[in-house]
Amino acid sequence: MAHAQQHAKRRVRAKHTALYKDAWRAVASNGKRFAAIAVIVAVGVMMMGALSSISNDLRGGLDGFFDKTDMHDLSIVSTFGFDDDDIKALSDVDGVGSVAGQRSASAYTKINGKQSSATVTELNDQGLDQPYLTDGRLPKAAHEIAVTEQYLADSGKALGNTLTFTLDESTSVAQLISGASSADSSSADSSDASSESDSGTFATGDYTIVGTVIDPNDIVNPSGPMALISGAKTVYPLFVSSEAAAATDAPYTSALISVDGAANLNTYDGDYLTLVKRTQDSIEKIQSSREQARTDAIKDAVREPVESKLDEQKRTIEALPDGSPMKATAEQKIADAESQLESELDALPDANWIIHDRSALTSYEDVKTESEMISRLGKLFPILFLVIAILVSLTAVARMVEEDRQLIGTYKALGYTRGETMLKYLIYSSAAVLAGGVVGDLIGLAGLPFVFTKRMLHILYVIPTYPLIIDWRIGIGGILLFLVLITGSAMAVCAGSLRLQPAELLRPKAPKAGKTIVLQRIGFVWNHLSFLGKVTARNLFRYKSRALMVIIGVLGCTSLMTAGFGMASSAMTMMPRQFGEIATYDVMAVTKAADHDKAQKALDEDDAVESSVPIHLESATLSAGDAVGGNGDAGNSGSGNGGAAEDSKLTVQLMVIPDGESLDGYLDLHTTDGRTIVLDEGSEATAVVTANAAKTFGLDTGATVELADAMMDTAQVKVTGVAQYYTGNIVVMSEAAYRAAFDVNNDTDLALNADLIKVKGDDDTQIAFADDLAGQDEYLTVVSTAKQTRDFTKSFMIFFVMIGFIVVMAAILAVVVLYTLASTNISERERELATIKVLGFRKREVHGYVNKEMLLLACFGIAIGLPCGRGLLGFLLSQLDLPGMNIVPNVAWYCYAVAALLALLFTVLVELATNRSLDSIDMVGALKSPE
């Protein structure tokens, strides 16, 4: 009994050994098919891993940069700023790690003789929002300053040079406080009412440049496409030490807060957001009391010096004799002054806190949006390669099973089970998947992300370093996905043959019965075809599955290339369409409000100016209103997201058109389907928003949004139109609508500060005119649409890299599919091809006998793939949620032509490669073998 068991075990081991040897021999003898499956799997796994890794690296890079610069988790701004008591109260809140009061001010500085905008920020003692040092050192002394690389490049200065700036205190906290101290100026001189308003926020004079830094609050590359798309004016960040403050008791502009434990979490993780939100809720509990305390402190600061003056005057009046008319008059003036003081104090607005988390930072939201976009593409692209991999594996394994028909019959006759016989093909397909998957993971998880972050992301952002985050779950999961589906398809192919009996498998398979094809019934056509034409037509219908696979492979290749070239065409025509169809002005010039009249007069007298229209322009923040919704006019917005997160915010340019002025000839506001939008000049708070903003918030006409102006005043605004706009985001309002929204009654609050200008001459003349205006002191920012278009084209080289990548992927797809099918076709038809060679067909005729079929099928695939590529482009662009960019599909004719020609080229190259196999067919051996 024991001997029999041992003998049985040896037989089983011998059977398994033979199976394994046969399986590995199959890999060697079917190397081309093995390589085809491995390459397709490698590309699919690579795409899945690379795009997911790049998304993680992008987020990880920003998170690491924020950790290095101690970026705030929460920030608070207030209409009256903050004092030390506010900072102390915030530091006592549960969950708060550290709090820093920060002073900053808007300023103007000269860049090559041209006045430019800047922000001057004081380094705080807690190190929060610390600028990232790239060269030199941070300022320590009173007249030292750190600048960005952009400032040095634009100004031509270097470390050790000096710069000067002029503060713009018109919107500063100190100015707001001093404005409140004007009560009863006829009775008391209140010029010293508050020491906070005696001077500017920072000392004036020359500052020595001691360091080059990156501002952590704005990491967008100023020369990259994101900066050009936004269309916002350049504002240079400048950093000074606390020694540069003009007064040590000046109010803080903002309060920066770090949350306990937040630095240990990724800034985009749900745990981080929950932790920060919990701390924000705790801060909101003390908000009302601190706002009231700050309001009382400001009122006391205003009241005290005025009352001191009045008390002094009262003592003087008391010295006058009773009953004196002068005394009665003076007492009445004192009473009027006191009454006016109380009225002024009652009219003074209360302090108002606005609490922001990191989502208020444009860069933070940009990185979040783009990483999500890349991650979505990482799930979409591999699907195509997964389908192709299944088709290729079906073809390869089906041919192997057909070639091994008699061997399978032998296995079954020897007693091998169905599972044991199938094991050979499972090992073959599994080995191909694992080989391709490992290569794909190495390239996708490490190689491509490294190249992309080093070469591509630096075009978009100035983040100094990116981590290489390898998520093995994605890598292993991608391999397992391909493994399950491809081995499953191999099992399905094997199942049919394994159901047959050994005797049937050992006999040659009977050829399929011939059928009359449809074309044969059309005598006029069929009778005029040549012999080779008739053979080609019959073979197209004879091998239906293979024909379908060729069409699908070429279709996928053509679709990818059409989408890639179409994306480039859509992007590169975006600026010309923006400034040719919508923003038809030539120059936008922004001034100080006080200088606008002078600048406007000079424009009116300039012969180079064809016409101009004055407007009010300011930066604003758009967010979801109390009742986001609409009348369902989805055609206006083109929104596909159906809604927006409540916390979403978008920085926009608020453009207010004065009463009596028209935008005709300067800005063509129309919906995405071409209908003209007319500004509402009624008394209701209404506005026109851009299609990209509407997509962000899921808006339609009739929806309500919240608009916050530069002074942090907010208003609920009704959307009366969603306008087509390709680059940047604007909100357009009439003067009446603006006054209704923000309750503005004073003309000075709606001071004109910009002009839209049409200039005579060509692009070079317009650019020269804009440069001339930029050199004048009255102008803060001058933008030439012609120059923007040129710069945009240069900066969008990133698109050409993406297109090159797509074309390479398409080429791999086409070559692998076509080569696999061509080689399989030749191996199946060796006897037939040997016959026509024996009959005297020349090489070229034999080549045409086979290649004509593939060429015709490729043409079918191209014809279907071109419109499919247009559809794929529309789908991809709907997934590219780029902030401030509304890319509308625009596929030029040459995009279709190039995609079709390249697809044909790939087909011809494969045919040339397989011609060798046709030439090397062994006629004698092929004719001896069974068909």
From TrEMBL:
<feature type="transmembrane region" description="Helical">
    <location>
        <begin position="891"/>
        <end position="913"/>
    </location>
</feature>
<feature type="transmembrane region" description="Helical">
    <location>
        <begin position="34"/>
        <end position="54"/>
    </location>
</feature>
<feature type="transmembrane region" description="Helical">
    <location>
        <begin position="547"/>
        <end position="568"/>
    </location>
</feature>
<keyword id="KW-0812">Transmembrane</keyword>
<feature type="region of interest" description="Disordered">
    <location>
        <begin position="181"/>
        <end position="201"/>
    </location>
</feature>
<feature type="transmembrane region" description="Helical">
    <location>
        <begin position="422"/>
        <end position="452"/>
    </location>
</feature>
<feature type="transmembrane region" description="Helical">
    <location>
        <begin position="472"/>
        <end position="498"/>
    </location>
</feature>
<dbReference type="Pfam" id="PF02687">
    <property type="entry name" value="FtsX"/>
</dbReference>
<dbReference type="InterPro" id="IPR003838">
    <property type="entry name" value="ABC3_permease_C"/>
</dbReference>
<feature type="compositionally biased region" description="Gly residues">
    <location>
        <begin position="627"/>
        <end position="643"/>
    </location>
</feature>
<feature type="transmembrane region" description="Helical">
    <location>
        <begin position="854"/>
        <end position="879"/>
    </location>
</feature>
<dbReference type="InterPro" id="IPR038766">
    <property type="entry name" value="Membrane_comp_ABC_pdt"/>
</dbReference>
<feature type="domain" description="ABC3 transporter permease C-terminal">
    <location>
        <begin position="380"/>
        <end position="491"/>
    </location>
</feature>
<feature type="transmembrane region" description="Helical">
    <location>
        <begin position="380"/>
        <end position="401"/>
    </location>
</feature>
<dbReference type="GO" id="GO:0005886">
    <property type="term" value="C:plasma membrane"/>
</dbReference>
<keyword id="KW-1003">Cell membrane</keyword>
<feature type="domain" description="ABC3 transporter permease C-terminal">
    <location>
        <begin position="805"/>
        <end position="909"/>
    </location>
</feature>
<feature type="transmembrane region" description="Helical">
    <location>
        <begin position="796"/>
        <end position="821"/>
    </location>
</feature>
<feature type="region of interest" description="Disordered">
    <location>
        <begin position="623"/>
        <end position="645"/>
    </location>
</feature>
<protein>
    <submittedName>
        <fullName>ABC transporter permease</fullName>
    </submittedName>
</protein>
<feature type="compositionally biased region" description="Low complexity">
    <location>
        <begin position="181"/>
        <end position="199"/>
    </location>
</feature>
<keyword id="KW-0472">Membrane</keyword>
<keyword id="KW-1133">Transmembrane helix</keyword>
